[in-house]
Design a protein that fits this description.
The chain has 3 domains: about 55 residues, no CATH class; about 60 residues, no CATH class; about 140 residues, Methane Monooxygenase Hydroxylase, Chain G, domain 1 (Up-down Bundle), CATH 1.20.58.100. The protein has 9 helices and 8 strands. Helix 6 runs antiparallel to helix 7, helix 6 runs parallel beside helix 8 and helix 7 runs antiparallel to helix 8. The protein is globular, with a radius of gyration of 23 Å.
Length: about 280
């Protein structure tokens, strides 16, 4: 079984990053009846039918519960800029997303935010045309990305970032690991400034896109590491093995990260509790 998984890109016993989920006690008929979608995922994505073999499983990023700090109408505080859906943070989730909450975030607040943005466009006296200087700034930004600044491979930096976040900011975290991970991430940020785009074309340049995405990812990783390091408790999807209990007295608040003068600054805003006060999780 291990040889089969290694052939499909999974690590072997010396670098195990999955567990095997055995469906056999459930029985073939019940799997077909109750778990047909899970079976299809196994067959289509990893080529393994859970009727025949255990499935390799591991935690993965499913949903972003933070995002851009916005008002209830999706306004970011920047003139002409609204945000909705997974990119925004309306605090409809709390510290962990409930099933189907993402639908409300997209459908309900997508409509609200879209309506507010359209209303602003129709009623504002401000000109909404793009200035020539804005176009020039965008062109200079892209042109600068093409300039050779070093021989660091953007794809290798992304792979190292992935491995770092997997190791130090995964399901279970602690101060020692987060501190070491933050150190590595900051090194990757410096390396990300010394990369070159190997493809020079201007039409769907995937290398350019990947390089820009990588630079965004390393900066966001710093935010994640810093926020997790400062929050000395466990809450929702954030679990600190050195602080396993939730601490409402000190941390019933949102973490806000802003970039000021090139550095990330962490601050907090209180959580508004209306009908239901957070209670200890007993299941």
């Amino acid at each position: 079984m291990t040889e089969i998984l290694e052939g499909r890109g999974f690590k072997g016993p010396n670098g195990l990053d999955f567990i095997l989920l055995d469906f056999s006690p459930i029985g073939a008929e019940k799997i077909k009846e109750k778990l047909s979608q899970v079976r299809e995922i196994g067959i289509h994505y990893v080529g393994i039918d859970p009727l025949d073999s255990p499935l390799p499983v591991r935690p993965a990023a499913h949903y972003t519960m933070g995002g851009i700090d916005v008002t209830k109408t999706g306004f970011t505080g920047i003139t002409g800029l609204w945000a909705a859906g997974e990119v925004s943070c309306l605090s409809v989730h709390g510290a962990n997303r409930l099933g189907a909450n993402s639908t409300s975030e997209c459908v309900v607040f997508g409509k609200v935010t879209g309506g507010e943005a359209a209303r602003w466009l129709l009623t504002s006296d401000t000109s909404h045309s793009i200035e020539d200087s804005d176009v020039k700034d965008a062109e200079n930004f892209i042109a600068d990305a093409y300039r050779d600044k070093g021989d660091n491979d953007p794809y290798e930096i992304k792979r190292e970032l992935w491995a770092t976040m997997d190791r130090y900011a995964y399901v279970f975290r602690d101060e020692k690991g987060l501190t070491e991970g933050l150190k590595i991430v900051r090194q990757l940020i410096e390396r990300s400034k010394l990369t070159s785009v190997s493809e020079k074309g201007n039409v769907y340049n995937q290398n350019l896109i990947s390089t820009l995405e990588m630079r965004n990812l390393v900066e966001l990783a710093e935010v994640v590491m810093m926020g997790a390091l400062e929050r000395k408790e466990s809450r929702g999807s954030h679990f600190r093995t050195d602080y396993p209990k939730r601490d409402d007295e000190n941390y019933l608040k949102h973490t806000i990260a802003r970039k000021v003068a090139g550095k990330i600054e962490i601050s907090y805003v209180p959580v508004t509790v209306t009908k239901w006060k957070p209670e200890p999780r007993v299941y």
